[in-house]
Amino acid sequence: MALLHRATLRPSKLDLLATWLPARQWYRGPAGADLVTRGAYRFDDPAGAVGIETILVGAADGPVHQVPLTYRAAPLDGADDWLVGTTEHSVLGPRWVYDGCADPVYAAALADAILAGTGQADQYFEVDGRRELREPNMTIVASGAAPLPVDAPGPVVDEEATLIVTDSVELVVVRRPGAADAAGAVLSGSWNGQPTTVPLAYARAR
User: Fold this and answer.
1) Which residues neighbour 35 within 8 Å (Cβ) at sequence distance 6 or greater?
2) Distance (Å, whole) CA 38 – CA 79
3) pLDDT at 31
4) Environment class of residue 5 by beta-carbon count within 10 Å: exposed (0-12), middle (13-18) or buried (19+)?
5) CA end-to-end span of the chain
6) Distance CA 17, CA 85 (A)
């Protein structure tokens, strides 16, 4: 379950991505273009400490890009090269925003979603002491396989797709959904403007 806050972020997520995204080698689109969100989904951090959100974003007339983000209350050791930026959350205070592909909490959650079929987290707003469900704006499904533990994330190779190497499994995040085939156990998704499911990520045992 993801408990959301009715809050403002300064700068906003899209403002951070507008600066960060054009420098990625897998980005296709003009620098300085206005970005729009096509959809998003969240995973749970069992410890409740790290926010995990994957945003599908792009220029209005360009391809869709998939950007997993993690939100932390303090810097993540050794992940400076994967920092998207920092933002001030009006409820939670300073947040360090990372490309989730380099965050071990995201790697474990992604493996669970693909291999154990945990799916996306239900999202709630808390209003006057009551929880109100936020309807998802995209759907994800997993092909399913035997769960594998992800205890020791290793190298991350950020190319056209991003490879996350762990002790037991290799995870591949498709950066431009619809632009690549997938092999292994697959996480697929659909959203407004993409009515059929396309691969978002996949996992294969090492």
Assistant:
1) 14, 17, 18, 21, 57, 58, 59
2) 27
3) 79
4) exposed
5) 30
6) 9
97 DSSP β-pair partners: 71, 85
Of all residues in the chain, the percent with pLDDT exceeding 90 is: 54
For residue range 135-185, what is the model confidence (pLDDT) as tens digits? 788 999 988 665 666 665 667 888 889 999 988 889 999 999 985 666 778
Query: Token digits for 201?
Result: 């990520």
Kindly give the pairing relationship between strand 123-127 and strand 2-4.
Answer: parallel
Alpha-carbon span 170 to 152, nearest angstrom: 12
Domain count, the chain: 1
Length of the chain equals: 206
Return the HEC string of 98-139: EEHHHCHHHHHHHHHHHHHCCCCCCEEEEECCEEEEECCCEE
Residue 35: helix, strand or coil by DSSP? strand
Q: Are the beta carbons of 142 and 186 closer than 8 angstroms? A: yes
CA dihedral over 34, 38, 43, 47, signed as positive or negative = positive
Reduced to 3 states, what is the DSSP secondary structure of residue 159? coil
Q: Range of 142's domain? A: 2-205
Q: How far is CA 121 from the centre of its chain?
A: 12
Are 201 and 173 in contact by the 8 Å Cβ rule? The answer is yes
